[in-house]
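Section: Multi-chain targets

For targets with more than one molecule, the full set of components is provided together so that the structure can be written out for the assembly as a whole rather than chain by chain. Components appear in the order listed by the source. The example entry contains two components.
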Amino acid sequence: EVQLVESGGGLVQPGGSLRLSCAASGFSFSSYAMTWVRQAPGMGLEWVSTITGSGGSTYYADSVKGRFTISRDNSKNTLYLQMNSLRVEDTAVYYCAKGRAAAGSFYFDFWGQGTLVTVSS
Amino acid sequence: EIVMTQSPATLSVSPGERATLSCRASQTVTNLAWYHQKPGQAPRLLIYDASTRATGVPARFSGSGSGTEFTLTISSLQSEDFAVYYCQQYNKWPLTFGGGTKVEIK
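Its structure, encoded as tokens over all components, is:
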């Protein structure tokens, strides 16, 4: 059974940093691209960042480019999102989502339950 | 950026009735997925490649369309289908989602 469990969310002041983690199990982690998608309170879904199965390619939304870094440790079956220079508008539930291939076909067949990041003074 | 526009924003439907949701892309796409999301839950994949049902998705869900116009049809709404539905294109970076259609009980 595929499981994705996010952690690392919490309350942080503007300008601060957080690192999110997503522990994966039930599938061959290195064979699939992984993605972070966020959802601000009461709002729709927003793609944040994607990393290919090998970790060789990464993609970012313009809204987070230069501030967030996606990475993965295939030996630990874990996905990360390092978030720096956080802004109030980064407040959202952050979901980890599994892709359908190592690269390409960037839609998401399994999602974690999400972790809430609140940026506020 | 490819902008995805969903309509209507809210659809009121009685159980057992048919629901038709629309998704329009600002430029031609060939790779489109549909998800639904219930309150307090993560999204769930329903359709990919515009018309292929994901594993375990009931046959009452069907996707159609091409180019810039896509449709998700739910043939006979069940109580568990009342949720928010999102389309997503994965043709080009950045990946983009539509704003969602809320399907509510009439």
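Chain A has a mean pLDDT of 97.
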